[in-house]
Amino acid sequence: MKRLFLFLISLLIGILLLIWVIKFVGWIEIKIAFSTFTGWQGITIFFLTLFLILVGVWKWKEILKSYGIDISFLDLSKFYLAGFSLMYFFPMVFLSGEVFRGYLLKKKNSVPWSKGMASVILDRISDWTTNLITIFFGIIFFILTIALPPRKWVIIFGGVFLFWIFVISFFYFKVFKKESIVRFFLKLINSKYRNSEPLEVEKEIFDFFRLRKNSFWKGVGLAFLEEVVTFLRTWLLIIFFGRNIGFLPVLSIVGFSYLAGMTPIPSALGIHEAIQVFAFSALGLGAATGTVFTMIIRGPELILAIVGLCFFVRLGFKLTEENLFKKEEI
């Protein structure tokens, strides 16, 4: 009930922000910006978004292969999309998609919980790492050459960015020193928690971070390939609007997109529009273009998230049915 309440509140905030953005920019201007966009351009953006998802599945598959686990690309795609849908629609539930993916690996493919959860956590950490790198360079360029965002935005998004920088930096510091993060927090709270599962997951994560392992560098390469595809999708979409833009401004726009995505609002509704209205205006691309940009980017993501939600319901129903059948046999 609490999670449903959080979802509804965050969704309401997003809707109110979106309404404010539309009123601020003007519906006529938004309609004009939309009129320059064609069907084949929309198909291009959709397939780039789909390719982005497939690269994510590929990365996860390579991580699993490093543990000696080989699962078909099709099955992993279903699991990945199911987890993506949870992350997309329910970002306020931390790691919900990752936990569900780990659960599916265990129940459907008999993957040990420690290896399955390690794989999805590593997949997520690689995304956070490359996203933060993009945010850092994109926002630094924007601040130094364009403009400083409003003070309230600096406080809110700056706080979010610094929090994740601290989390990722702390993680890598502990990993490369081979010091347990789980034990660190257990000591911090003086806990007598005896469950060994978190320690086993941590051990598998530490085992992956070996610089001489090909799987590690494959994971890094695929994580940066995701950034390249995201950059290409952003750059092409802006060109489709008839705008000329350089490498660093595109990097700034991608960075702002990632910042918006770090907020606990479903599909970054409203918050993404608001931040891109500021960014596009400051870059001389037009506030209406920024609004339409976010709507078009959200379109293919929403379609794939709905497909993932169907997989989530179907897989969840099958697992429930299988568990009930086993109980009846007992």
Average pLDDT taken over every residue: 86
Distance from first to last alpha carbon: 32 Å
> Total helix count?
13
Would you report the number of β strands? 0
Tally of separate domains: 1
Uncertain runs are none
Q: How does the SSE layout of this entry go?
A:
Elements: H1 2-25, H2 27-35, H3 39-65, H4 73-89, H5 96-109, H6 113-145, H7 151-176, H8 181-188, H9 197-208, H10 214-240, H11 247-261, H12 271-282, H13 287-329
Helix pairs in contact: 1-12, 2-13, 3-4, 3-6, 3-10, 3-13, 4-5, 4-13, 5-6, 6-7, 6-9, 6-10, 6-11, 10-11, 11-12, 12-13
Question: How does this model look, in words?
Answer:
The two termini are 32 Å apart. By secondary structure, the chain is mainly α. The chain contains 13 helices and no strands. The protein is globular and about 60 Å long. The protein has helices at 2-25, 27-35, 39-65, 73-89, 96-109, 113-145, 151-176, 181-188, 197-208, 214-240, 247-261, 271-282, 287-329. 81% of the residues lie in helices and 0% in strands. The chain has one domain. The model has no long low-confidence stretch (mean pLDDT 86).
